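User: Please predict the structure of the protein below. I'd like the answer in structure-token form so I can feed it into my own downstream comparison script.

Assistant: Understood. Taking the following sequence of 589 residues as input:
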Amino acid sequence: MKKHIILLILVLISLFTFCSVASASNVSDTNDSINLSSTSNSSNIVINSTSKNTSSINYKKNELFVKFKYSSKASYQKISKMVNLQIGATVIKEYSDVKGLQLVRIPANMSLKDAIAKYKKNSNVIYAEPNYAYAENSIPDDTYYDYQWGLSQVNASEAWNITTGSHKVIIAVIDSGIDLNHPDLKANIWINKGEIPGNGIDDDHNGYIDDVYGWNFISGNSNISDDDGHGTHVAGIIAAAGNNSKGVTGVMWSATIMSLKFLDNEGNGYVDDAVSAIRYATKMGASIISCSWGGSEYSQALKDVIDASSALVVCAAGNRGCGANDDISPVYPACFTSKNIISVAATDTSDALASFSDYGLNSVDVAAPGTHICSTLPGSQYGYMQGTSMAVPYVTGLAGLIKSIRPDLTALQIKYTILNNVDYISSLAGKILTGGRINALKALTNIITDSTAPTVRVNLKGGSYYSPLNVTLTSSEPATIYYTLNGSNPTKNSLIYTGPIILKTSQTIKFMAIDRSGTLSYVYTDKYKIYRTVKYSYKAKVSHKKWYKKWYKHWYKRHGKWHYYWTYKWTYKLYYTYETRYGKKYILT
């Protein structure tokens, strides 16, 4: 009988309401069921925005900035004239305050790429670059964008000036299914081009018949309709179509969402179906997998299939609240030690850890918005949900944006790019590994290619020692080591290790390292019991010998008669005195 591990949907402990289209005042945290239809009149909702799609880099045609080496005005003019003549460029403008800098126009029949390459070949040219077009932050014209507070919290609009996503990025949503016909999702739904719809044949020989849009692992068929709403909501946060004048926008405006259904209409599923879904996602080319679910039972099979996947797997930390620490009471798969997992906690509108969210310094990596999140729902609807389930797709969407501009990055490189570019939040310090909430702009402008986290070695493991004790910490690579001596969790504001830590009293040292690329190590803990010597006095009973002559008669016989004489022998008797003496002993400090 297969092991029944119920994977609890992490959102259902909290609010599930619908948005109103009648007026902005009706969009509130309420238990009433007020539907938002994509075709409803929303004239009372005023959205002040600038609609721009700047997913591609823009620049002025046939113009370049070129900076020449400058030793003297005469030599600069001679060299620049000669180089420009060779390329056929004409000078548009020179900048007297930046010596050697020119704005030039290249021939109409020459590409910018070729012109830049020719300039850079000349040793007298310091740099050549396009005359880029900059723009104000990209704000989509989606009807309910103003209600999506989480997007502004993670600097999504600034990130959209760099990219709004790409259909080349395949993201698997392993959940309760997706409404394929939702007007804000259908443009971003994955289609298995190797499968012919409805012919009852496994055309692409992947073991699944007619899996055109994904697969239902509960029923064993291609019906991936969402009878719970959770999966559709998650998908909308990741990649609801942006700037389409309707509904909401996802973190990504463009993506390819693969729907893999393993949660039923009550939000429960089995490990074997989750394992099959992850294997399917990996086999069919998903580079990112969203897992907004979890359970308290450890499954080695689930961990093994995640370890074997090349995808980045984003998991929910849990919604148990009441100070639930995943380091002590784990939630899986979020707490697996798999390198390709990102475990996500939820924050509220004040950037504080959400009241329901689990945390864990070594088991939870990062936080993202997770309260009162507006997104897509089945039946072309929109509504609010909250939970770490809603935080996961923010991180998933950010991973997709990174993959859009750097398709060459591995899962680990994307992971560390996200973790190393957070906004540090004091309330999260010591609660989760990074101590921060994701920042899309930072991540996109500071790609991390280092996929190796530093480790820290201590010369003496925790235990019992004599004072003074020298503790030495060594990082596996150039890194800054932060530590505390009071048992609290280290942060970037903690003590910085600069040399041996001298312990004269019992201490608990917690330490971590951050390398030059910003990659964090785990937090290590060593407890030391330190003993020191102390002087003490005590009364000692001392025995003494007092010697004396003991006389006795020595008898002898002579001429038949007994005679004697007196003689003696030395002997002693013991007597005692008490003396004060001094010693040393070890005591625990």
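That's the full token string. Residues 388-405 form the longest helix (18 residues).
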